[in-house]
What we know:
- It contains 5 helices and 2 strands; from the N terminus they run H-E-H-E-H-H-H.
- Helix 3 (44-53) packs antiparallel against helix 4 (60-71).
- The longest helix is centred in the N-terminal third of the chain and has 13 residues, at 6-18.
- It has 2 domains: 6-42, no CATH class; 44-86, no CATH class.
- It has helices at 6-18, 28-36, 44-53, 60-71, 77-86; strands at residues 22-24, 40-42.
- With 91 residues, the protein is mainly alpha-helical.
- The chain starts with 5 loop residues before the first helix and ends in a 5-residue tail after the last helix.
Amino acid sequence: MPELEEGEAESIIQAQEKGADRVILDEKKARRVASNMSIQPVGVARLLFRLQLDGHIEDARKLINKLRRELKFRISEDVIKEASLKAQEPI
């Protein structure tokens, strides 16, 4: 796999070995690799918005901001907006 972080590469390998059609990934390069392997990447933001939609968490945006602040999670406003729109789609 083209120069992915160990955890990302392992996630993709595990998804492939288990025959999963989705994997949780946020890094652009890892998402591209997974897509090329016919594994749909799902980002943390989309997952959080889906959890909010399903009533499992109260405020996805608040959690994303906490991730940004406390863990230096990098995500653009455009990606957050796209994730919130895609939350309607089943994961």
